[in-house]
Amino acid sequence: MTATEKALSAIDANLTGSLDRLFELIRIPSVSTDPAYSGDCRKAADWVVGQLRELGFEASARETGGQPMVVGHYGVSGGGAKAGNGVPHVLFYGHYDVQPADPIELWDAPPFEPRLVDTPTGKHIVARGACDDKGQFMTFIEACRGWKDATGELPITVTVLIEGEEESGSKSLGPFLDAHKDELKADFALVCDTGMWDAKTPAINTLLRGLMLEEIIITAASRDLHSGMYGGPARNPIRVLAKIIADLHDQDGVIQVPGFYDGVADLTPEQKQQWDDLGFNADGFLGDVGLSVPAGEKGRSVLEQIWSRPTCDVNGIIGGYTGEGTKTVIPSQASAKISFRLVGDQDPLKIRDAFRAFVKERLPTDCEVEFIGHGASPALYVDLSLPELGKAAAALEAEFERPAAMIGCGGSIPIAGDFKRTLGMDSILIGFGLDDDKVHSPNEKYNLSSFQHGTRAWARVIGALAGK
Ligand code: BES
Ligand code: MN
Ligand code: MN
After folding, report:
1. H or E segment at 58?
2. Are 98 and 151 in a shared domain?
3. Of 377, 405, 427, which closes a domain?
4. Ligand 2: distance of its center to the CA of 32 in Å?
5. 321 C-alpha to ligand 1 centroid (Å)
6. Residue 147 lies in domain
7. 426 ligand 1 Cβ < 6 A
8. Taking the model in full, what pTM does it have?
Protein backbone atom coordinates (compact mmCIF):
# COMPACT_ATOMS: atom_id res chain seq x y z
CA MET A 1 0.00 0.00 0.00
CA THR A 2 1.38 3.43 -0.87
CA ALA A 3 1.31 6.23 1.68
CA THR A 4 -1.43 7.93 -0.35
CA GLU A 5 -3.52 4.74 -0.26
CA LYS A 6 -3.09 4.60 3.49
CA ALA A 7 -4.28 8.18 3.79
CA LEU A 8 -7.32 7.37 1.64
CA SER A 9 -8.23 4.44 3.89
CA ALA A 10 -7.90 6.61 6.97
CA ILE A 11 -10.24 9.19 5.36
CA ASP A 12 -12.84 6.54 4.54
CA ALA A 13 -12.67 5.12 8.05
CA ASN A 14 -13.14 8.61 9.53
CA LEU A 15 -15.99 9.98 7.43
CA THR A 16 -18.38 10.24 10.40
CA GLY A 17 -15.82 12.18 12.42
CA SER A 18 -15.09 14.46 9.46
CA LEU A 19 -18.77 15.24 9.07
CA ASP A 20 -19.17 15.89 12.80
CA ARG A 21 -16.35 18.41 12.64
CA LEU A 22 -17.81 20.14 9.58
CA PHE A 23 -21.21 20.34 11.30
CA GLU A 24 -19.59 21.88 14.38
CA LEU A 25 -18.07 24.61 12.24
CA ILE A 26 -21.29 25.22 10.32
CA ARG A 27 -23.19 25.76 13.60
CA ILE A 28 -21.13 28.90 14.15
CA PRO A 29 -22.97 31.61 12.16
CA SER A 30 -19.86 33.44 10.93
CA VAL A 31 -21.52 36.05 8.70
CA SER A 32 -18.82 38.59 7.92
CA THR A 33 -20.86 41.43 6.44
CA ASP A 34 -23.04 41.93 9.52
CA PRO A 35 -21.31 43.34 12.64
CA ALA A 36 -23.87 41.50 14.79
CA TYR A 37 -21.98 38.28 14.00
CA SER A 38 -18.43 39.44 14.64
CA GLY A 39 -18.29 37.37 17.85
CA ASP A 40 -19.20 34.32 15.79
CA CYS A 41 -16.54 35.12 13.22
CA ARG A 42 -14.01 35.10 16.05
CA LYS A 43 -15.42 31.80 17.30
CA ALA A 44 -15.12 30.26 13.85
CA ALA A 45 -11.53 31.53 13.52
CA ASP A 46 -10.62 30.06 16.92
CA TRP A 47 -12.30 26.80 15.99
CA VAL A 48 -10.19 26.51 12.83
CA VAL A 49 -7.07 27.32 14.84
CA GLY A 50 -7.97 24.45 17.19
CA GLN A 51 -8.29 22.04 14.27
CA LEU A 52 -4.96 23.05 12.81
CA ARG A 53 -3.20 22.71 16.16
CA GLU A 54 -4.63 19.21 16.56
CA LEU A 55 -2.97 18.35 13.26
CA GLY A 56 0.38 19.66 14.40
CA PHE A 57 0.23 23.10 12.80
CA GLU A 58 1.61 26.14 14.54
CA ALA A 59 -1.56 28.18 14.21
CA SER A 60 -3.13 31.37 15.47
CA ALA A 61 -5.94 33.81 14.75
CA ARG A 62 -4.43 37.16 13.82
CA GLU A 63 -6.05 40.49 14.41
CA THR A 64 -6.85 42.67 11.43
CA GLY A 65 -8.95 45.79 11.14
CA GLY A 66 -11.82 43.43 10.35
CA GLN A 67 -12.40 39.73 11.05
CA PRO A 68 -9.49 37.63 12.35
CA MET A 69 -7.22 35.85 9.90
CA VAL A 70 -6.27 32.25 10.58
CA VAL A 71 -2.68 31.35 9.74
CA GLY A 72 -1.14 27.95 10.34
CA HIS A 73 2.24 26.50 9.43
CA TYR A 74 3.23 22.89 9.10
CA GLY A 75 6.83 21.95 8.53
CA VAL A 76 7.93 25.54 8.09
CA SER A 77 9.86 25.63 11.34
CA GLY A 78 10.22 22.60 13.55
CA GLY A 79 8.78 19.18 12.67
CA GLY A 80 7.33 17.91 9.41
CA ALA A 81 8.73 17.95 5.90
CA LYS A 82 11.04 20.80 4.95
CA ALA A 83 10.46 22.74 1.78
CA GLY A 84 13.18 22.21 -0.80
CA ASN A 85 14.67 18.87 -1.90
CA GLY A 86 11.67 18.36 -4.12
CA VAL A 87 9.21 18.80 -1.26
CA PRO A 88 6.97 21.70 -2.18
CA HIS A 89 5.66 24.34 0.19
CA VAL A 90 2.02 25.19 -0.57
CA LEU A 91 -0.19 27.97 0.70
CA PHE A 92 -3.73 26.68 1.12
CA TYR A 93 -6.46 29.34 1.05
CA GLY A 94 -10.12 29.20 2.06
CA HIS A 95 -12.64 31.35 3.96
CA TYR A 96 -14.56 30.64 7.16
CA ASP A 97 -17.03 33.48 6.68
CA VAL A 98 -20.40 32.91 5.03
CA GLN A 99 -23.09 34.97 3.36
CA PRO A 100 -26.09 36.13 5.42
CA ALA A 101 -28.82 33.49 5.56
CA ASP A 102 -31.70 35.71 4.55
CA PRO A 103 -34.35 35.51 3.27
CA ILE A 104 -34.64 33.20 6.25
CA GLU A 105 -38.28 32.28 5.60
CA LEU A 106 -37.30 30.48 2.39
CA TRP A 107 -35.19 27.90 4.23
CA ASP A 108 -36.78 24.48 4.84
CA ALA A 109 -34.97 24.30 8.21
CA PRO A 110 -32.81 26.67 10.29
CA PRO A 111 -29.77 27.66 8.17
CA PHE A 112 -27.12 27.10 10.84
CA GLU A 113 -28.39 23.68 11.92
CA PRO A 114 -26.74 21.42 9.36
CA ARG A 115 -28.67 18.34 8.24
CA LEU A 116 -27.93 15.35 6.07
CA VAL A 117 -30.86 15.05 3.65
CA ASP A 118 -31.63 12.05 1.43
CA THR A 119 -32.39 13.09 -2.15
CA PRO A 120 -32.69 11.33 -5.51
CA THR A 121 -29.12 12.51 -6.27
CA GLY A 122 -27.69 11.17 -3.03
CA LYS A 123 -27.18 12.62 0.43
CA HIS A 124 -26.85 16.40 0.74
CA ILE A 125 -25.41 18.45 3.59
CA VAL A 126 -27.85 21.38 3.87
CA ALA A 127 -26.90 24.60 5.70
CA ARG A 128 -25.44 28.05 5.12
CA GLY A 129 -21.74 27.45 4.43
CA ALA A 130 -22.25 23.73 3.69
CA CYS A 131 -20.49 24.40 0.40
CA ASP A 132 -19.22 28.00 0.39
CA ASP A 133 -16.70 27.71 1.88
CA LYS A 134 -16.80 25.61 5.03
CA GLY A 135 -17.56 22.28 3.34
CA GLN A 136 -15.02 23.10 0.67
CA PHE A 137 -12.03 24.13 2.78
CA MET A 138 -12.70 21.37 5.31
CA THR A 139 -12.03 18.85 2.51
CA PHE A 140 -8.40 19.99 2.57
CA ILE A 141 -8.15 20.04 6.37
CA GLU A 142 -9.67 16.57 6.59
CA ALA A 143 -7.29 15.34 3.89
CA CYS A 144 -4.42 16.58 6.07
CA ARG A 145 -5.97 14.70 8.97
CA GLY A 146 -6.11 11.54 6.84
CA TRP A 147 -2.40 11.85 6.08
CA LYS A 148 -1.57 12.48 9.74
CA ASP A 149 -3.67 9.55 10.94
CA ALA A 150 -2.23 7.17 8.37
CA THR A 151 1.44 8.15 8.35
CA GLY A 152 1.95 10.40 11.36
CA GLU A 153 2.86 13.43 9.24
CA LEU A 154 2.14 15.55 6.18
CA PRO A 155 4.48 14.81 3.29
CA ILE A 156 4.64 18.44 2.13
CA THR A 157 5.14 21.79 3.80
CA VAL A 158 1.86 23.61 4.25
CA THR A 159 0.87 27.11 5.22
CA VAL A 160 -2.86 27.50 5.72
CA LEU A 161 -4.56 30.86 5.37
CA ILE A 162 -8.27 30.92 6.17
CA GLU A 163 -9.74 34.39 6.07
CA GLY A 164 -13.01 35.72 7.43
CA GLU A 165 -13.90 38.49 4.99
CA GLU A 166 -14.10 36.86 1.58
CA GLU A 167 -17.84 37.37 1.38
CA SER A 168 -17.44 41.04 2.14
CA GLY A 169 -14.63 41.74 -0.30
CA SER A 170 -11.47 40.62 1.58
CA LYS A 171 -10.73 44.17 2.72
CA SER A 172 -8.14 43.21 5.36
CA LEU A 173 -6.40 40.54 3.33
CA GLY A 174 -4.55 42.78 0.85
CA PRO A 175 -2.79 44.75 3.61
CA PHE A 176 -2.26 41.50 5.57
CA LEU A 177 -0.46 39.90 2.61
CA ASP A 178 1.65 43.02 2.22
CA ALA A 179 2.64 42.99 5.87
CA HIS A 180 3.39 39.24 6.00
CA LYS A 181 4.99 38.57 2.64
CA ASP A 182 7.85 36.51 4.00
CA GLU A 183 5.65 34.50 6.26
CA LEU A 184 3.02 33.67 3.62
CA LYS A 185 5.16 33.17 0.55
CA ALA A 186 5.15 29.57 -0.66
CA ASP A 187 5.91 27.84 -3.97
CA PHE A 188 2.30 28.16 -5.12
CA ALA A 189 -1.22 28.46 -3.71
CA LEU A 190 -3.98 25.89 -3.55
CA VAL A 191 -7.48 27.36 -3.38
CA CYS A 192 -10.64 25.38 -2.60
CA ASP A 193 -13.55 27.71 -3.35
CA THR A 194 -14.73 26.82 -6.87
CA GLY A 195 -16.75 24.12 -8.59
CA MET A 196 -16.60 20.86 -10.51
CA TRP A 197 -17.69 20.61 -14.13
CA ASP A 198 -20.59 18.35 -13.11
CA ALA A 199 -21.30 15.90 -10.29
CA LYS A 200 -19.04 13.26 -11.87
CA THR A 201 -16.37 15.36 -13.54
CA PRO A 202 -13.69 17.16 -11.53
CA ALA A 203 -12.32 20.48 -12.71
CA ILE A 204 -9.48 22.89 -12.36
CA ASN A 205 -10.47 26.52 -12.71
CA THR A 206 -8.22 28.53 -14.93
CA LEU A 207 -10.14 31.81 -14.99
CA LEU A 208 -11.94 33.86 -12.37
CA ARG A 209 -13.71 37.09 -13.08
CA GLY A 210 -12.71 40.23 -11.23
CA LEU A 211 -15.23 42.33 -9.36
CA MET A 212 -15.84 46.04 -8.82
CA LEU A 213 -18.62 47.03 -6.43
CA GLU A 214 -20.21 50.45 -6.22
CA GLU A 215 -23.04 51.86 -4.19
CA ILE A 216 -24.62 55.06 -5.50
CA ILE A 217 -26.92 57.32 -3.55
CA ILE A 218 -28.84 60.03 -5.39
CA THR A 219 -30.40 62.86 -3.41
CA ALA A 220 -32.87 65.40 -4.85
CA ALA A 221 -35.13 67.41 -2.47
CA SER A 222 -34.00 68.03 1.10
CA ARG A 223 -36.84 65.87 2.48
CA ASP A 224 -39.52 63.40 1.35
CA LEU A 225 -42.40 65.23 -0.30
CA HIS A 226 -46.15 64.79 -0.73
CA SER A 227 -46.47 63.56 -4.32
CA GLY A 228 -49.67 65.55 -4.79
CA MET A 229 -48.41 68.82 -3.42
CA TYR A 230 -45.03 68.58 -5.19
CA GLY A 231 -45.60 65.98 -7.94
CA GLY A 232 -44.69 67.50 -11.32
CA PRO A 233 -42.09 70.09 -10.44
CA ALA A 234 -40.26 67.97 -7.89
CA ARG A 235 -37.35 65.90 -9.18
CA ASN A 236 -37.82 62.21 -8.32
CA PRO A 237 -34.46 60.54 -7.55
CA ILE A 238 -35.90 57.08 -8.22
CA ARG A 239 -36.66 58.12 -11.80
CA VAL A 240 -33.22 59.69 -12.14
CA LEU A 241 -31.59 56.51 -10.87
CA ALA A 242 -33.75 54.28 -13.07
CA LYS A 243 -32.82 56.30 -16.15
CA ILE A 244 -29.11 56.10 -15.38
CA ILE A 245 -29.35 52.35 -14.78
CA ALA A 246 -31.25 51.93 -18.05
CA ASP A 247 -28.49 53.81 -19.88
CA LEU A 248 -25.81 51.36 -18.70
CA HIS A 249 -26.62 48.82 -21.45
CA ASP A 250 -27.71 49.19 -25.06
CA GLN A 251 -30.26 47.01 -26.88
CA ASP A 252 -27.66 44.28 -27.43
CA GLY A 253 -26.55 44.12 -23.82
CA VAL A 254 -23.33 46.01 -24.52
CA ILE A 255 -22.14 48.13 -21.58
CA GLN A 256 -22.03 51.82 -22.40
CA VAL A 257 -19.48 53.14 -19.88
CA PRO A 258 -16.70 54.67 -22.01
CA GLY A 259 -13.52 52.57 -22.08
CA PHE A 260 -15.26 49.70 -20.31
CA TYR A 261 -14.07 47.08 -22.80
CA ASP A 262 -10.40 48.15 -22.72
CA GLY A 263 -8.40 45.02 -21.92
CA VAL A 264 -11.16 42.59 -22.92
CA ALA A 265 -9.81 40.19 -25.55
CA ASP A 266 -11.87 38.01 -27.84
CA LEU A 267 -11.62 34.28 -27.28
CA THR A 268 -8.83 32.58 -29.17
CA PRO A 269 -10.07 29.89 -31.59
CA GLU A 270 -8.31 27.22 -29.45
CA GLN A 271 -10.03 28.40 -26.29
CA LYS A 272 -13.37 28.53 -28.05
CA GLN A 273 -12.82 25.00 -29.37
CA GLN A 274 -11.85 23.68 -25.92
CA TRP A 275 -14.99 25.18 -24.40
CA ASP A 276 -17.20 23.89 -27.23
CA ASP A 277 -15.75 20.42 -26.61
CA LEU A 278 -17.01 20.53 -23.03
CA GLY A 279 -20.54 20.16 -24.40
CA PHE A 280 -22.14 22.66 -22.05
CA ASN A 281 -25.92 22.31 -21.80
CA ALA A 282 -26.98 25.96 -21.88
CA ASP A 283 -30.71 25.19 -22.05
CA GLY A 284 -30.46 22.96 -18.99
CA PHE A 285 -28.36 25.50 -17.11
CA LEU A 286 -30.95 28.23 -17.64
CA GLY A 287 -33.91 25.86 -17.42
CA ASP A 288 -32.86 24.70 -13.93
CA VAL A 289 -33.45 28.23 -12.63
CA GLY A 290 -36.63 28.92 -14.60
CA LEU A 291 -35.06 30.87 -17.47
CA SER A 292 -34.95 30.14 -21.18
CA VAL A 293 -33.23 32.91 -23.15
CA PRO A 294 -29.69 34.19 -22.43
CA ALA A 295 -29.97 37.90 -21.62
CA GLY A 296 -26.28 38.86 -21.87
CA GLU A 297 -24.37 40.39 -24.76
CA LYS A 298 -26.01 39.42 -28.02
CA GLY A 299 -24.22 36.86 -30.19
CA ARG A 300 -22.20 35.27 -27.38
CA SER A 301 -22.76 31.77 -26.03
CA VAL A 302 -23.92 31.32 -22.44
CA LEU A 303 -20.57 29.86 -21.42
CA GLU A 304 -18.78 32.77 -23.05
CA GLN A 305 -21.09 35.23 -21.29
CA ILE A 306 -20.21 33.69 -17.91
CA TRP A 307 -16.52 32.88 -18.32
CA SER A 308 -15.06 35.42 -20.69
CA ARG A 309 -17.29 38.48 -20.84
CA PRO A 310 -17.61 41.31 -18.33
CA THR A 311 -20.96 42.32 -16.90
CA CYS A 312 -22.68 45.14 -15.10
CA ASP A 313 -25.51 44.20 -12.76
CA VAL A 314 -27.76 45.96 -10.33
CA ASN A 315 -27.81 43.85 -7.15
CA GLY A 316 -30.20 45.99 -5.21
CA ILE A 317 -32.21 49.15 -5.53
CA ILE A 318 -33.71 51.10 -2.70
CA GLY A 319 -35.93 54.16 -2.54
CA GLY A 320 -39.28 55.49 -1.49
CA TYR A 321 -42.05 53.59 0.20
CA THR A 322 -41.83 49.79 0.05
CA GLY A 323 -44.16 48.78 2.89
CA GLU A 324 -47.74 47.47 2.81
CA GLY A 325 -50.31 49.36 0.79
CA THR A 326 -49.37 52.67 -0.78
CA LYS A 327 -47.90 55.98 0.20
CA THR A 328 -47.99 58.97 -2.08
CA VAL A 329 -44.46 60.19 -1.66
CA ILE A 330 -41.62 61.60 -3.72
CA PRO A 331 -38.59 60.44 -1.80
CA SER A 332 -35.57 62.58 -1.18
CA GLN A 333 -33.15 59.73 -1.90
CA ALA A 334 -32.75 56.64 -4.02
CA SER A 335 -29.81 54.28 -4.09
CA ALA A 336 -28.53 51.22 -5.85
CA LYS A 337 -25.85 48.61 -5.38
CA ILE A 338 -24.12 47.93 -8.66
CA SER A 339 -21.43 45.39 -9.49
CA PHE A 340 -19.19 44.81 -12.46
CA ARG A 341 -17.65 41.41 -13.23
CA LEU A 342 -14.36 41.92 -15.00
CA VAL A 343 -12.26 39.80 -17.35
CA GLY A 344 -8.89 39.88 -19.06
CA ASP A 345 -6.87 42.99 -18.28
CA GLN A 346 -9.74 45.31 -17.41
CA ASP A 347 -8.54 47.78 -14.79
CA PRO A 348 -11.04 47.93 -11.91
CA LEU A 349 -10.04 51.41 -10.72
CA LYS A 350 -10.19 52.92 -14.20
CA ILE A 351 -13.63 51.41 -14.64
CA ARG A 352 -14.72 52.79 -11.29
CA ASP A 353 -13.69 56.30 -12.37
CA ALA A 354 -15.35 55.91 -15.77
CA PHE A 355 -18.56 54.68 -14.13
CA ARG A 356 -18.62 57.60 -11.70
CA ALA A 357 -18.13 60.06 -14.57
CA PHE A 358 -20.90 58.29 -16.53
CA VAL A 359 -23.31 58.80 -13.62
CA LYS A 360 -22.32 62.42 -12.97
CA GLU A 361 -22.79 63.33 -16.63
CA ARG A 362 -26.37 62.16 -16.44
CA LEU A 363 -27.23 63.86 -13.19
CA PRO A 364 -29.85 66.59 -13.68
CA THR A 365 -29.94 69.91 -11.82
CA ASP A 366 -30.88 69.74 -8.14
CA CYS A 367 -29.51 66.21 -7.75
CA GLU A 368 -26.44 65.14 -5.85
CA VAL A 369 -24.71 61.80 -5.98
CA GLU A 370 -22.58 60.02 -3.44
CA PHE A 371 -20.48 56.98 -4.34
CA ILE A 372 -19.36 54.31 -1.91
CA GLY A 373 -16.75 51.92 -3.27
CA HIS A 374 -16.90 48.38 -1.90
CA GLY A 375 -13.81 46.83 -3.37
CA ALA A 376 -12.25 46.33 -6.74
CA SER A 377 -10.29 43.29 -7.89
CA PRO A 378 -9.09 42.36 -11.37
CA ALA A 379 -9.70 39.05 -13.14
CA LEU A 380 -7.36 36.13 -12.61
CA TYR A 381 -5.98 33.73 -15.15
CA VAL A 382 -3.94 30.74 -14.16
CA ASP A 383 -0.59 29.98 -15.77
CA LEU A 384 -1.32 26.76 -17.66
CA SER A 385 2.35 25.83 -17.88
CA LEU A 386 2.67 25.41 -14.11
CA PRO A 387 4.03 21.84 -13.73
CA GLU A 388 2.06 21.20 -10.52
CA LEU A 389 -1.15 21.74 -12.49
CA GLY A 390 -0.53 18.47 -14.34
CA LYS A 391 0.11 16.60 -11.08
CA ALA A 392 -3.09 17.97 -9.57
CA ALA A 393 -5.06 17.08 -12.69
CA ALA A 394 -3.75 13.51 -12.60
CA ALA A 395 -4.68 13.19 -8.91
CA LEU A 396 -8.22 14.40 -9.66
CA GLU A 397 -8.51 11.95 -12.52
CA ALA A 398 -7.40 9.08 -10.28
CA GLU A 399 -10.10 9.94 -7.74
CA PHE A 400 -13.01 10.60 -10.12
CA GLU A 401 -11.97 8.17 -12.86
CA ARG A 402 -12.46 10.95 -15.40
CA PRO A 403 -10.06 13.57 -16.71
CA ALA A 404 -10.32 16.94 -14.99
CA ALA A 405 -11.98 19.60 -17.13
CA MET A 406 -10.14 22.89 -17.50
CA ILE A 407 -12.88 25.43 -16.93
CA GLY A 408 -13.58 29.08 -16.31
CA CYS A 409 -15.73 30.50 -13.59
CA GLY A 410 -18.06 33.45 -13.49
CA GLY A 411 -17.51 34.10 -9.79
CA SER A 412 -14.73 35.97 -8.09
CA ILE A 413 -12.29 35.34 -5.27
CA PRO A 414 -11.05 38.87 -4.73
CA ILE A 415 -7.71 37.95 -3.19
CA ALA A 416 -6.55 35.31 -5.65
CA GLY A 417 -4.98 37.93 -7.92
CA ASP A 418 -2.98 39.32 -5.00
CA PHE A 419 -1.26 35.99 -4.42
CA LYS A 420 0.36 36.60 -7.79
CA ARG A 421 0.82 40.36 -7.52
CA THR A 422 1.99 40.56 -3.90
CA LEU A 423 3.60 37.18 -3.32
CA GLY A 424 4.54 36.19 -6.88
CA MET A 425 2.69 32.89 -6.50
CA ASP A 426 0.51 31.08 -9.01
CA SER A 427 -2.72 29.54 -7.79
CA ILE A 428 -4.29 26.18 -8.50
CA LEU A 429 -8.05 26.44 -8.07
CA ILE A 430 -9.75 23.16 -7.27
CA GLY A 431 -13.19 22.85 -5.75
CA PHE A 432 -16.07 20.42 -5.56
CA GLY A 433 -19.10 22.72 -5.66
CA LEU A 434 -21.93 22.12 -8.13
CA ASP A 435 -24.15 24.56 -10.01
CA ASP A 436 -27.16 23.42 -7.99
CA ASP A 437 -25.50 23.94 -4.58
CA LYS A 438 -27.50 27.17 -4.11
CA VAL A 439 -24.49 29.04 -2.77
CA HIS A 440 -25.56 32.42 -1.32
CA SER A 441 -29.22 31.23 -1.57
CA PRO A 442 -31.66 29.60 0.83
CA ASN A 443 -31.14 25.85 1.34
CA GLU A 444 -27.48 25.91 0.35
CA LYS A 445 -26.14 22.36 0.13
CA TYR A 446 -23.01 20.35 -0.51
CA ASN A 447 -23.30 16.84 -1.84
CA LEU A 448 -21.93 14.30 0.60
CA SER A 449 -20.11 12.88 -2.43
CA SER A 450 -18.43 16.27 -3.00
CA PHE A 451 -17.23 16.27 0.59
CA GLN A 452 -16.08 12.66 0.50
CA HIS A 453 -14.43 12.64 -2.92
CA GLY A 454 -13.13 16.16 -2.35
CA THR A 455 -11.33 15.06 0.80
CA ARG A 456 -9.93 12.01 -0.95
CA ALA A 457 -8.94 14.07 -3.97
CA TRP A 458 -6.92 16.50 -1.83
CA ALA A 459 -5.21 13.56 -0.14
CA ARG A 460 -4.19 12.39 -3.62
CA VAL A 461 -3.06 15.88 -4.65
CA ILE A 462 -0.92 16.13 -1.50
CA GLY A 463 0.54 12.72 -2.24
CA ALA A 464 1.21 13.58 -5.88
CA LEU A 465 2.95 16.84 -4.93
CA ALA A 466 5.15 14.91 -2.49
CA GLY A 467 5.83 12.16 -5.03
CA LYS A 468 4.27 9.56 -2.71
N1 BES B 1 -16.82 30.81 -3.72
C2 BES B 1 -17.30 32.03 -4.29
C3 BES B 1 -16.75 32.28 -5.69
C4 BES B 1 -17.36 31.37 -6.69
C5 BES B 1 -18.66 31.53 -7.07
C6 BES B 1 -16.64 30.35 -7.26
C7 BES B 1 -19.24 30.69 -7.97
C8 BES B 1 -17.21 29.48 -8.14
C9 BES B 1 -18.53 29.66 -8.51
C10 BES B 1 -16.93 33.17 -3.38
O11 BES B 1 -17.15 32.87 -2.03
C12 BES B 1 -17.83 34.32 -3.68
O13 BES B 1 -19.01 34.20 -3.48
N14 BES B 1 -17.25 35.41 -4.11
C15 BES B 1 -18.00 36.61 -4.24
C16 BES B 1 -17.07 37.75 -3.93
C17 BES B 1 -17.76 38.96 -3.39
C18 BES B 1 -18.72 38.69 -2.28
C19 BES B 1 -16.73 39.99 -2.98
C20 BES B 1 -18.60 36.69 -5.63
O21 BES B 1 -18.07 36.10 -6.59
O22 BES B 1 -19.63 37.33 -5.74
MN1 MN C 1 -16.42 31.11 -1.48
MN1 MN D 1 -19.37 33.10 -1.63
Report:
1. strand 58-62
2. yes
3. 377
4. 12
5. 32
6. 3-208+379-466
7. no
8. 0.92
